[in-house]
Amino acid sequence: MTWFLNNYLGSYLENVDTHQLSVSLLQGEVDLENVPLRKDALRFIEPCVEVKSGVVGHIKLTIPVSRLRSEPWILLLENVSVVLTPQKFKDYDEESDDQVQVETKLHALDGIESEWRASHETADSSYYPAYSSWLNYGESYIDTIIENLQLHIRNVHVRYEDDISVPGQISAAGFTLKSLVAQTCDGTWSPRFVHRDPAQGEMEAFKIVELVDMSAYLDINTSPWDIKEEFNNTDKSREYILEPVSAAATLKRHCLPKPLNSRKQARLVGNLELNSISLQLSNSQYQKCIGCGRSLQMLKRARKLWRWRPNLSVSENPRRWWRFAITCTLDSIHKQREKQTLSSVMSAARDNVAYVEAFMHHLEFPEALPDNLKVIKDYQDTWRSYDELKALREIAVVRLKRKLGEATPKQVSSPMQPEGGATTPVEGGEGGEGGPSVLQHWFPGWYGQTVDSSDKVAEKLEIIKDNSEGTHGRSHKDNSEGTLGRSHKEDSEGPRGKSHKDVIFSHLAVNLQEATLRLLNTSVGDKHLSGDPSTLLECSFREVKLEHESRPRTG
Predict the structure, then answer these.
(1) Helix/strand/coil (H/E/C) assignment for every residue in 344-371
(2) Which three-class secondary structure state does DSSP give residue 522?
(3) What is the DSSP string of 191-214?
(4) CA-based nearest residue to 310, from 320, 300, 298, 301
(5) Angstrom distance (rounded) from CA 281 to CA 262
(6) What are the residues whose beta carbons fall under 8 Å from the beta carbon of 299, sequence distance 6 or more?
């Protein structure tokens, strides 16, 4: 258990002290207290923001060891407090920053290789026959545990302190949460342990979420926050943008692995109930938001040049600062000119050929990659850009498919490729084309769409149900809508000859009892010196109902 926590939570938490970890095998409880957050916990999300101080007061995982098939796992997070600040030059580590960039780039490129593995790890693979039976069992077992996992979060405070937009002044934006509970329930929205049987047509999962006292604030010209002294201080005044609000939500998810072709069935159906919302924003808060956003944007640009920045001040060594300015200006110019020379073009062409060969060999024989090809692949993975590597990997996949005698036009690019270039694995063929991979067995929703026998039965039941609904009382208008729906479906069909998206992905309904929006007029410090600010605009809303439907095929 300690190994699991260190390896999977180690990206966000400091090394877990084994003396803080108490595991009771009889009760099935894992307890951690006062676990500090790593300073670089957000390095893969936003490298220019770091954790000044942070701690998770209590982490508790309750596992019903003797009743795993009848009681849910419960995860409890309590007293989470985090203070974020812009990264300072003194804390910049060039090697660590380069490593983060490489890991982020390779993680985004993993989809191309994952798609290949998902479609080519056949029943003839070395490990697949031996493990196929318990993999099927493990998939069902883990799916049941994850689906019934209960999440309890209490007393969360995340605060960002800005000390760079206005030197000598600290402004803070914060988010607080008193309680958040997410539970699995049955079709009547009663919380309970649920075990679905897809073979019986039970394809819907239900969740209920309860939110208590969520708020957001923006304090101008404040003081630094001490977690130990002020975590439990609820009397301190805040300049709220969103005053504490509570809500309840229900979520119904259709679990059919295949895309839903019904015009009446959404993949996700959500209903959000809100009693009251109070929003207010002053002109000084608005100006502070703009200034903070600009300072972060400038910080992102400056971080790219920190590798050449002198450690001394300008007055101590002005010559080095002049060299720094010249280097920052000429670096991009030199790189652009180098790319335009004949020798550089020929070298890049040779590197392209070598990388395509290395990646083809890596896909075909992942455990027998020669050392020389491994050196070529690792070196170019490190120093080449994401766009270049993505293009070369796709070329390698196409050439390897031609080498193996597979049809390539319909699989040059993944039909499920998301924005940002990361390729998402797709379905690994039909009619016995190949068996799914290990990860695809355990987490089918993450690695494409695979359907076992029970899912195929459920899919047939859905088709019969949809057809029966559509054949009774259909008018001319329904027929015209059906024609339009089929045309949209044909237009959005992927290279495999079928659509890879749901007709209706989500349907969200929001019921708001009361809402207030206020725009205030004040300058920095006026509120603290002379009473309340003046009101520029105030709007009130009652009995507001909103509905939103997402249709990926029609945009």
Answers:
(1) HHHHHHHHHHHHHHHHHHHHHCCCCCCH
(2) coil
(3) B------GGGT--EEEEEEEEEEE
(4) 320
(5) 43
(6) 48, 86, 87, 164
- Residues linked to residue 159 through DSSP beta bridges, in sequence order: 83, 174
SS3 state of residue 325: helix
Nearest to 241 by CA among 287, 284, 279: 279
- The single residue listed with the structure tokens 């910049």 is 92
- Kind plus residue range of the DSSP H or E element containing 413: none
Question: SS3 of 13, please?
Answer: strand
Residues 6 or more apart whose CB falls under 8 angstroms from that of 425 comprise 111, 114, 115, 118, 414, 416, 440, 447, 448
**Residues in the chain, total:** 555
Structure tokens, 279: 């929003």
Q: Are 515 and 276 in contact (CB under 8 A)?
A: yes
The pLDDT tens digits along the chain (555 residues) read 555 566 667 778 886 665 556 555 556 777 888 888 888 888 778 888 999 989 988 888 888 877 777 888 888 999 999 999 999 888 888 888 888 888 888 888 887 887 777 677 644 444 444 444 444 555 566 778 888 889 999 999 999 999 888 888 899 999 999 999 999 998 888 888 888 877 777 888 899 999 999 999 999 888 888 876 655 555 467 889 999 999 999 999 988 878 888 888 899 999 999 999 999 999 999 999 999 999 999 999 999 899 999 998 899 999 999 999 999 999 889 888 888 889 989 999 999 999 999 999 998 888 888 889 989 999 999 989 899 999 999 999 999 888 888 755 444 444 334 443 444 333 333 333 334 443 344 334 433 344 444 444 445 455 445 555 444 444 444 443 443 344 344 334 443 334 568 888 999 999 999 999 999 998 654 444 445 688 889 999 999 999 999 988 775
Q: Give 343: exposed, middle or buried? Use CB within 10 Å, 0-12, 13-18, 19+.
A: exposed
Q: Please state, in angstroms and rounded to a whole number, the distance separating the CA atoms of residues 491 and 328.
A: 48
Q: What's the count of helices (H) and strands (E) in the chain, helices before strands?
A: 13, 11
Task: State the alpha helices, DSSP H only, in 453-512.
Answer: 453-470, 476-491
Phi, psi of 382 (to 5 degrees): -80, -45
CA distances from 196 to 8, 207, 379, 453, 465 (A): 29, 14, 48, 15, 19
Nearest to 390 by CA among 126, 13, 110: 110
Residue 186 to residue 205: CA distance in whole angstroms: 8
